[in-house]
Write a structure and sequence with these properties.
Blueprint (H helix, E strand, L loop, with lengths): L2 H20 E4 L3 E7 L2 E7 L2 E4 L5 E7 L3 E4 L3 E4 L5 E12 L2 H8 L3 H21 L3 H7 L1 H19 L2 E12 L2 H73 L1 H17 L15 H4 L5
Antiparallel strand pairs: 1-4, 2-3, 2-5, 6-8, 7-8, 8-9
Length: about 290
């Protein structure tokens, strides 16, 4: 290889090496800054292909997506001097790359630690201004909204971080206080149960009394209707008997005597009657003479 060709090859290799070290790509999910001897020269590099001076300039990349800070459960004191254990999380992302780098040196763990301290401080202040009921249910959403706004004022300027949301996963009571609350709730539920049972017994007695009254009325009306029907039947029977008797008194007397014989002689009782009694008139003579 001639000296000129060798020199050209060396130059091309150096150019390729410098190009490979000087060109870099920033993705859509990243934020980056350019440093020159550890001094920030470009604080917000947009996604795409860029150039840097090899060795002299360096590029720091950061995650531009929404990140989650899952804090450890912490103990806070309410306005009523009651302790609560709060488990919370925060959603955040990098807004100002220069401020973020200056505050954390680009260390995500350091950023999470600083943000966790601010979240705990904000929760402590907000919970201290509210009662236990307000913290648990009454003003919980309002507390989270206000805390998010307060944190943004501190984190955007000091850390270059935008806090998108702060939410509480769980609010628990200490074990001793939980037992006290449980006992109070149990007593309250027992009181409500007694009230419901008392109301139920009162209602049942009213229903039973009304049912007894209706039963008495129905039975009385049924007995009245039965007696009326029986009386009408007896009257109709008497009318029919009277009509039949008036048509043929002898035949009527004969059938009545036969019926009397049937009813009397099928019994085991002893009856003492005179032989010439009128009861035997049709036994002695079919004509009843």
């Amino acid at each position: 290889m001639s000296p000129k060709a060798f020199a050209a090859s060396v130059i091309l290799a150096i150019v390729f090496l410098l190009g490979s070290q000087g060109l870099y790509v920033i993705n859509e999910t990243e934020r980056a800054i350019k440093l020159k001897f550890r001094e920030v020269v470009d604080a917000d590099i947009q996604p795409g292909l860029h150039w840097k001076i090899p060795v002299v300039e360096t590029v720091k990349r950061f995650d531009a997506r929404v990140l989650t800070l899952d804090s450890e459960p912490s103990r806070f004191l309410t306005a009523g001097k009651k302790y609560v254990i709060v488990d919370s999380f925060a959603k955040w992302r990098i807004q100002n790359v220069r401020a973020y780098y200056k505050a954390t040196s680009g260390n995500r763990n350091e950023a999470s630690k600083l943000l966790a301290n601010l979240v705990n401080k904000g929760l402590r202040d907000e919970i201290a201004a509210r009662s236990l009921h307000e913290v648990v249910s009454g003003e919980r959403d309002e507390l989270m909204t206000k805390l998010t706004a307060v944190l943004n004022k501190e984190t955007q300027d000091d850390l270059g971080i935008e806090v998108l949301d702060v939410r509480v996963k769980a609010i628990d009571l200490p074990e001793d206080l939980s037992k006290s609350v449980y006992d109070r709730m149990s007593a309250e539920r027992e009181r409500e149960a007694r009230e419901h049972r008392s109301q139920g017994r009162e209602l049942a007695e009213g229903i039973q009394a009304d049912a007894d009254r209706q039963q008495t009325v129905i039975e009385a009306e049924a007995y009245r209707d039965a007696e009326r029907t029986r009386g009408e039947g007896d009257a109709e029977a008497a009318r029919i008997y009277a009509s039949a008797f008036s048509k043929d008194p002898e035949f009527y007397a004969f059938t009545r005597s036969l019926k009397a014989y049937t009813e009397t002689f099928k019994q085991d009782d002893v009856i003492l009657l005179k032989p010439d009694s009128d009861f035997f008139r049709y036994l002695k003579d079919a004509n009843g003479n």
